[in-house]
Amino acid sequence: KNQVEQSPQSLIILEGKNCTLQCNYTVSPFSNLRWYKQDTGRGPVSLTIMTFSENTKSNGRYTATLDADTKQSSLHITASQLSDSASYICVVADTGGFKTIFGAGTRLFVKA
Amino acid sequence: NAGVTQTPKFRILKIGQSMTLQCTQDMNHNYMYWYRQDPGMGLKLIYYSVGAGITDKGEVPNGYNVSRSTTEDFPLRLELAAPSQTSVYFCASSYSGPSLNTEAFFGQGTRLTVV
After folding, report:
1. What is the pLDDT of residue A97?
2. Contact list, B103 vs chain A (CB under 8 Å)
3. Which of A3, A100, A101, A107 is the best residue to mutate to test the B interface, defined by the most B CB atoms within 10 Å of its own CB?
4. Which residue did the predictor score with more confidence, A59 or B98?
5. Quick one: closest CA in A to B43, which residue?
6. Which of B49, B101, B110 has the highest number of chain A CBs within 10 A, making it the mutation to test binding with A?
7. Are B104 and B98 contacting, i.e. CB atoms less than 8 angstroms apart?
């Protein structure tokens, strides 16, 4: 069964600290993996998109990694800011078309 | 700078009532999608469209209908509202399909409560 599992479910960190969020998937055949940021009461906003051949992709203080062999991805946030408080969602698409599986997200709280 | 616009933002329906959630995009995207987001769960695809006049079912289509008469608009219709349809609904659009690595843009969501 195609699944995307994210950990931890929630995380609290102090402003200025780094953190890493995890995503494990079983979607096959794999096409791409996306990370989204979703602020409370808003729609998801794309952070990164990675294909099979990409190991790392950065977007400012956000760096995503992908290991297609182990079917794992991580999102690393550097020097966190209060505005990073949000849910981070991992989404995996297969090559067939519209089978995109969304993870349940990691809720990040950044405290001053 | 509008992107994907959804209306209304909030709505309370009584069981058995009907309503239409509106979605419009100004990016000339062919692909449009409707998702629902329930607490603690990942987004689930309800319906999608690859262009005007073409729609198809997603993972959870029961109780919903859609139409796509123009490139810009993709309304979602609930005919007989049920408590199980209480959720947050998101409309999204993209230039091409999810397997082709193009970015999807989401609306701000409609929070629907059925009582």
Report:
1. 65
2. 46, 49
3. A100
4. A59
5. A102
6. B101
7. yes
The neighbour count for residue B82, using CB atoms within 10 Å, is 13
Q: Is residue B81 classed as helix, strand or coil in its secondary structure? A: coil
> Under DSSP, is residue B84 helix (H, G, I), strand (E, B) or coil?
helix
One-character DSSP codes across A30-84 = EEEEEEEEE-TTS--EEEEEEETT-SEEEETTEEEEEETTTTEEEEEE-S--GGG
Using CA atoms, how far apart are residues B100 and B53, in angstroms rounded to an integer? 22
Task: Look up residue A101 and give its two tokens.
Answer: 């599986």
Q: What is the pLDDT of residues B73-103, one digit of tens each?
A: 999 999 999 999 999 999 999 998 877 778 8
- B89 DSSP 8-state letter: E
